[in-house]
């Protein structure tokens, strides 16, 4: 690596986050030989990310606005531990320009873009203007956010339904609604505005043309402070529910080398225009005819960054740290070669069949899959509690294969191998989708789930599964009751019938040569 | 020989278990299955049903032990199952009671969270699928709908109120 004059070696990183992303960053710190500092709220006292870090600081009560979102507490924790850099992960303070500025003022390196860049790109209107100036195609929509229902409605009629209502300060699907007809407009606007107000403190919204059955494809970018900027291929994130991604893959089944280059160069275009430094993602909607439209720039590490890591062999968190130290990128565009195919399944503590309702509680059993091509970024371990206060994503299953078919087969295998009980999860949902013919062919859009599973009918219990569950339950009842009766009557050799029973069956199974 | 009536997703199975000198045989709707059980830990066990391997976690939750309700975690799924003694199930059927009569008498919060909207009022007729209450939890709004047609007797929450899992929010006639 070439060190620039201003280069400053980072020695200790405070991770201003929790869950799997905190674990992910702690691992990068370990790989780099850096000291990691975790922060934790009341309910996260024994969380997995805390257990893995070198040092940990309590930052407040469980609600995130009293802990993970309190800038003072995070800065204080950094000062107290002598951390010279803060990695914000995603969510929480990751795209908060004020916080990035605060870090700079305190002499702490914020691992992310400059505050001005975060501010400009975080404002959807300014980002859109910047994209247009940089020559990127955009979807027709309002030029400014509004909370005036008459103005909004008039504009919607002008561009024609369906339209998308988007919170001015939104993200992660919150405060976002699709309206198919004029009749539903007012109620949708009210709901979106209320969600936006409660999540971001700003109820203003944008109205834009809603593309029918587009794909969501995004470009990973990496830029240093010396003007070098590269793109690391795309990620297809079309499998979404409630506008939140659930399955991602790279490369996209429809992106050709030529399209990749055009999208990549467009992404670099807006990166340069905004003076981007660090890792970032430029999101696009891709229409049926493969024309693409700029959506937004996420000025942080994305949840789905591992699929890019799997096919490029580049550790994005490590590169974020290098860039934050002021180093030159170690790669040129020509160095970036895509190898194979990767999928990511987001494992949420949610009930897919009840409209993905969050499920809280304790993980009574938890065992992650392994084997060729499998990487699990998990924020929990067995007996972890899933708190109600935060995003219910508990892990990401990331699988690599030499081509899409192999990656798909390995992902299915890994899902079979996953063991999780105590809370509901999206594992069975993933299994169902990964067997869907359209998905297997790569014939997907952001509407895939609502088209294929309009009733959230992801269960599809087959006969064998139902019969096995019936036998398992009957056997459990039988053994439980038998255990009680035997121990009550007392056994002469001091062993319960349970033990005898298992001894007998155990001998039957393990008696033969294997 | 223990005989059970087991219900999975509204399908009924008649299961007889035969147990002798460490062997377990299940006769399910007239078909024989050889079953080997190895306890793993707590409620988890490894079943071999006709040599097919299944890692299962059969859990009861609270009242479940009495009513025979179990949750079987297997192959990434959480499958609700009801197990009853065959004779009791027969008596129940003779009396004309369904095993899953869940006449919705109330709507109980399925998770803790913040009530952001109440869509019903006392005296209101609701149909299956009509929205009752909107609860925000984990930063998402969740709309809870009526499971069957009913008349609202009382609404016990107001918008802005925090609720715990298990709190009764709406009562029906």
Question: Mind explaining what this structure looks like?
Answer:
The complex is a heterodimer of chains A (514) and B (173). By secondary structure, chain A is an alpha+beta fold. Chain A has helices at 19-32, 48-52, 71-81, 97-105, 115-122, 124-133, 149-159, 185-200, 257-273, 305-312, 316-324, 404-417, 427-433, 437-441, 448-452, 463-489, 497-510; strands at 12-15, 35-41, 55-60, 85-87, 109-110, 163-171, 174-179, 205-209, 215-223, 229-241, 244-250, 278-286, 292-298, 341-348, 350-351, 357-358, 361-362, 365-367, 374-378, 385-386, 393-401, 419-421. Chain A folds into 5 domains: 12-111, Rossmann fold; 140-209, Dna Ligase, domain 1; 212-339, D-amino Acid Aminotransferase, Chain A, domain 1, CATH 3.30.470; 347-439 and 454-461, D-amino Acid Aminotransferase, Chain A, domain 1 (2-Layer Sandwich), CATH 3.30.470.20; 470-509, no CATH class. Chain A has 17 helices and 22 strands. In chain A, the strands form 6 sheets. An 8-stranded antiparallel beta sheet of chain A has the order 13-12-9-10-11-14-21-19, with helices on both faces. A 5-stranded parallel beta sheet of chain A has the order 3-2-1-4-5. A 3-stranded antiparallel beta sheet of chain A has the order 7-6-8. In chain A, strand 10 and strand 11 form a beta hairpin. The radius of gyration of chain A is 25 Å and the shape is globular. The model of chain A is unreliable at 484-514 (pLDDT under 50). Chain B has 2 domains: 3-94, Glycoprotein, Type 4 Pilin; 106-172, Beta Barrel (OB fold (Dihydrolipoamide Acetyltransferase, E2P)). Chain B is built from 2 helices and 16 strands. In chain B, the strands form 3 sheets. In chain B, strands 1-2-3-4-5-6-7-8 form an 8-stranded antiparallel barrel. In chain B, a hairpin with a 2-residue loop joins strand 5 and strand 6. The longest helix of chain B is centred in the middle third of the chain and has 9 residues, at 86-94. Chain B is elongated. The termini of chain B are far apart. At the A-B interface, helix 8, strand 16, strand 22, helix 13 and helix 16 of A face strand 1, strand 2, strand 3, strand 4 and strand 5 of B.
């Amino acid at each position: 690596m070439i060190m620039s004059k201003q280069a400053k070696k980072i020695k200790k990183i405070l991770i201003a986050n929790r869950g799997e992303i905190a674990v992910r960053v702690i691992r990068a710190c370990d790989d780099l030989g850096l000291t990691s500092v975790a922060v934790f709220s009341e309910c996260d006292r024994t969380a997995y990310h805390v257990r893995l870090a070198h040092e940990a600081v309590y930052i407040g009560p469980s609600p995130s606005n009293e802990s993970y979102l309190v800038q003072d507490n995070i800065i204080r924790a950094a000062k107290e531990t002598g951390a010279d850099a803060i990695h914000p992960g995603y969510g929480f303070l990751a795209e908060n320009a004020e916080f990035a500025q605060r870090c700079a003022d305190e002499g702490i390196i914020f691992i992310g873009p400059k505050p001005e860049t975060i501010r400009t790109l975080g404002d959807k209107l300014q980002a859109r203007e910047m994209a247009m100036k940089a020559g990127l195609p955009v979807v027709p929509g309002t030029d400014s956010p509004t909370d005036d229902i008459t103005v909004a409605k008039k504009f919607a009629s002008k561009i024609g339904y369906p339209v998308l209502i988007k919170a001015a300060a939104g993200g992660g699907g919150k405060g976002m609604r699709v309206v198919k007809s004029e009749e539903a407009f007012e109620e949708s606007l009210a709901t979106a505005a209320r969600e936006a107000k409660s999540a971001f403190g700003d109820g203003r919204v944008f109205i834009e043309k809603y593309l029918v059955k587009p794909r969501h494809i995004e470009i990973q970018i990496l830029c240093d402070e010396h003007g070098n900027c590269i793109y690391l291929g795309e990620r297809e994130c079309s499998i979404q529910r409630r506008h939140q991604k659930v399955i991602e893959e790279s490369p996209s089944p429809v992106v050709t080398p030529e399209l990749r280059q055009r999208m990549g160069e467009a992404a670099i275009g807006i990166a340069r225009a905004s003076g981007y430094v660090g890792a970032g993602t430029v999101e696009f909607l891709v229409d049926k005819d493969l024309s693409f439209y700029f959506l937004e720039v996420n000025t942080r590490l994305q949840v789905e960054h591992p699929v890019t890591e799997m096919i490029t062999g580049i550790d994005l968190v490590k590169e974020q740290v290098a860039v934050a130290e002021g180093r030159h990128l170690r790669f040129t565009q020509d160095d970036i070669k895509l190898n194979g195919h990767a999928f990511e399944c987001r494992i949420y503590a949610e009930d897919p069949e009840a409209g993905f309702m969050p499920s809280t509680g304790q993980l009574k059993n938890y065992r992650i899959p392994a084997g060729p091509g499998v990487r699990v970024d998990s924020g929990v371990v067995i007996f972890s509690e899933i708190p109600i206060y935060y995003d219910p994503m508990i892990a990401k299953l990331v699988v690599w294969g030499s081509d899409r078919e192999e990656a798909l087969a390995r992902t299915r295998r890994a899902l079979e191998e996953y063991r999780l009980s105590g809370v509901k999860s999206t594992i069975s949902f993933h299994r169902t989708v990964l067997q869907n013919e359209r998905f297997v062919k790569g014939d997907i859009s952001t509407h895939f789930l609502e088209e294929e599973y309009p009733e959230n009918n992801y269960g599809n219990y087959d006969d064998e599964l139902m019969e096995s569950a019936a036998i398992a339950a009957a056997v459990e009842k039988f053994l439980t009751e038998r255990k009680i009766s035997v121990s009550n009557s007392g056994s002469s050799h001091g062993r319960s019938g349970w033990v005898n029973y298992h001894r007998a069956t155990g001998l039957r199974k393990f008696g033969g040569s294997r | 020989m223990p005989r059970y009536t087991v219900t999975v997703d509204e399908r009924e199975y008649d299961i007889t278990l035969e147990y002798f000198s460490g062997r377990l045989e299940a006769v399910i709707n007239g078909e024989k299955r050889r079953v080997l059980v190895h306890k793993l830990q707590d409620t988890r066990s490894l079943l071999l049903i006709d040599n097919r391997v299944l890692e299962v976690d059969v859990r009861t939750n609270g009242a479940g032990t009495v009513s025979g309700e179990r949750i079987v975690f297997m192959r990434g799924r959480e499958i609700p199952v009801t197990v009853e003694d065959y004779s009791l199930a027969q008596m129940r059927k003779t009396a004309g009671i369904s095993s899953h009569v869940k006449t919705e008498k109330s709507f109980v919060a399925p998770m803790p969270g913040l009530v952001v909207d109440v869509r019903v009022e006392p005296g209101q007729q609701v149909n299956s699928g009509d929205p009752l209450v909107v609860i925000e939890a984990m930063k998402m709004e969740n709309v809870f709908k009526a499971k069957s047609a009913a008349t609202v007797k009382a609404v016990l929450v107001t918008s802005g109120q925090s609720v715990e899992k298990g709190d009764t929010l709406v009562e029906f006639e």
